[in-house]
Amino acid sequence: MWQRREVVIGGALTLLFGSAQKCFCFDSRAPHSRGCNLHADDVNSVYPHGTSTGISDEDSIIPNSGDKAFDFALAQTLYMLTQKYGVRPGFAYFDDSASPNAYATPVARLANADGTVLMGKALLGTLRRMPEAPDVAVAGVCAHEFGHILQFRYGLMEKVNSGQPTVKRSELQADFFAGYFSGLRKREKQSFPAAVVSMTIHGFGDTEFHNPTHHGTPEERARSVILGFESASSGKSLSEAIEESTNYVLSQ
Amino acid sequence: MNYFSHWPYVIWCAILIVGPSPAWSEADRINSFKCFDRFDRQTNKGISLEEAVEACNLVLRDNPSDLQRYGAYLHRGLANFELKDYRQSAADFDVFLSHLDGLQVGLPTIELVHERNAAANFLLKNYPKAISELDHAEAVSKDAEQKEHRPDLSYATPSWHYAIRGDAAFFSGQYAAAVDQYERFQQLRESRPEFGVISDDGFKQLQNHLKIARQMAGNPNHAPSTPPVPAPSTAVDACKLYPNLCP
User: Fold this and answer.
1) What is the pTM of this model?
2) Residue A196 and residue B219: Cβ atoms within 8 Å?
3) ipTM
4) CA geometry: angle at A84 spanning A216 and A141, to 5°?
5) Do the Cβ atoms of B172 and A11 come within 8 Å?
6) Which residues of B touch A2 (CB under 8 A)?
7) pLDDT tens digit string along B81-128?
């Protein structure tokens, strides 16, 4: 059991992290984009080349993090995500030193790929400095971004965001999918620290209710992760989880 | 999370039915209205929160009946909560709870969950500070207990705080801490059911949270710093998909 000091310090770190990284999906180089979804018109400014070769003369192209062991391990996690979500996006890093970010875009930069997920190196560094299971924190953000790819695949983005002033619904649905992934991993491996996914995404909540990029409050985001976790824990299929998450966010 | 927002009406109506003390003056009646009538926050714009707190202070000063006293504590707690004086608000709610326990009036205490969740929402934003505030609130409650010669008040206090802390930890994703706090609440409720200040529905929700928190908690302190080494076939497949991440 945790001691009070640990609880307080943990809470302080969560708050500190949350305040430092209020939202990981806004970038001045992506004026057409809302939330974590990189609009096609903004792709080239953020990510001009693909991940298939990983080689580019553009500064913004970063095929790997420089930590071979971590990248290799992350590739396995991403592969698991492709298996569980049934999508195959490309993946690359990019220079987000100006504003820590991660994106998902429907623009495919890899042969036979379902869009592309982009992880900023600055955001990666922040996540990897988290005190508890940083690898799972990275996996949680990737699971969220892969959730957007799932939305692109099934046309969910338009469905849930239709008529909405903010992207909250689609973000909460991506959070749901991240929770779903953590629940599936928990079922496979009891020691998987699923709570870290919720804690990480909770830290990215915001209260900018009138900002079009509003992703949901910390509690709304954590709640969505928990619902996704429960969905997986109760043995629901991906299609059932998609339906459940859609109904849930439409009620928000 | 807004389970039931009209429960102060029940208390206000109960006070009206029982009626004020015969010794009450017109000024007392006005104070009671100012104190108790704060519950309709949407329409009652005529009385400020500060005025309501002061009116409740006067009601309590005049030593009315128990029913009026606990109503005054409740409504002062509500007003203080809106004034963001969480320490005093928590102390007021604690005294209110102790009155409920002592009187056994059978009011639907589920509605306290509403306040617990309001407190939990606050805690989400100010968790470390709030824990400190609640610790101070316990001290304030004990002080109030001594002044009012009410035994066992401190017993009611931690049960509420455990539930608040459990919710705060739960909704902030700190599931191990949530399990710890919820289990403390359950233990206290089992050992002293008369202080289990929560309805059946509220308790079911708490148990549901506890179940999820136990699932989510896993064993984070022993999590590997890097993902497990994959089986060779998985590694090959992963590297086919993500060659840029593989050696």
Assistant:
1) 0.51
2) no
3) 0.77
4) 35
5) yes
6) 174, 176-177, 180
7) 777 776 677 667 666 655 554 444 433 333 344 444 444 444 444 444
